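re: ur question from yesterday

yeah so i grabbed the chain u mentioned. its 382 aa long if i counted rite. heres the sequnce exactly as i have it in my notes:
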Amino acid sequence: MSETGVGMRPRRIKNALCMFLPLLFLAGCPGPESTQVKPSVPEPVKESAIPGFPTLRKDIIVGDNPFWVAVSPDGRYAYVSNSGSSTVTIIQTSDLTVVSTFGVKASPAGLSISPDGKILILTSRSAREVNLYSLSSGQPVLTATVPLDYEPEFAAFSPDGAYVLVTHPTFAMVSVIRVSDHRLLNTISVFGNPTCAAFLPDGTLAYVGTNHVRENLNVLKRDGASFSLLQTVQSGTLPQCLAPSLDGKTVYITDNHSQNLTLVDTASQNTKGGNITVQEGPAGIAVTPSGKYAYVANHLSNSVSVIDLGQGKTVGSVSVNGSPWGIAFSPDGSLAFVTESENILPAQRDLYQRQRSAGNQVTGVNEFRSQTLTVLNTNDYH
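ran it thru and got these structure tokens back, copy pasting raw so excuse formatting
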């Protein structure tokens, strides 16, 4: 707070006395202000007081650094990839209890479930492979492993469940896997450091974030079994994750180095005027099953923003304990599942963002492991 006007006079008097009366210094006079370094700490995010707004339902302890979450199409289970402990946690949604945890290859990241609910796919960064699990028996059973040439990050099923796109941020590549025979069909060179991927509802186009300072979004075209880079689209700063509207006319992209969502018109592949403001460090995004709202995980603000897509503006935000990253909804939209990955000290967030925006490896930043999956009641906002 700035020390100006009447509010600073008592402190000035005390400091002046301390200069001439050493005994007072022993009684609590401050030292020289020039030696006091005050870290920049942002204002805490407050719970919204909007009637019917989402509220905290439960914090569930899972594994270390929960990264991504997916909910089965029948709504019975939520699956969480824990990148820090190399495990996957399964949560029963009816009572929000952990039913099992199983070990996987090192550094699991992206996790996705096929539209028919029969297959779970999981990327393993350190092992450079993708693992496919059958969910037919209720518990995941490993059925296939697809080796890759590059470290994978995210995975996205096509709407018909026939193909999976896998992103490789370090090598500017996207792999295409055919699900029926677990075959790697081809690898596509793209722009930037590809992160999240998502198909339009009709499956004709897929969009891939770049997490790159040059602000381009990749657009992939599907023609039968063939995939190719169609074009890049000018987007916001460090386009990270994205989600299409239910009608497929708009793609919403989180700009990780800002406080904005960028909107892209899928017919023209141009950005729409007027970004939507959220909070610092937007990462994961998901649209509710009704298509009315989008929820955004603000990684550097420890909050989740709720956007009214019809009005094109943020309604409010909900505070969470850690640094949120991934979001998924129950099929009826009544619950939102939010992973909380590494926590970053407020004073180090600017350093973290500068290194990320430059495409450099993050160094000198203390990240504390989280073990929390937060569940929100969406209430009237689903």
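noticed a couple things. Helices lie at 9-20, 22-26, 349-357. also The first helix runs from residue 9 to 20.
anyway ttyl
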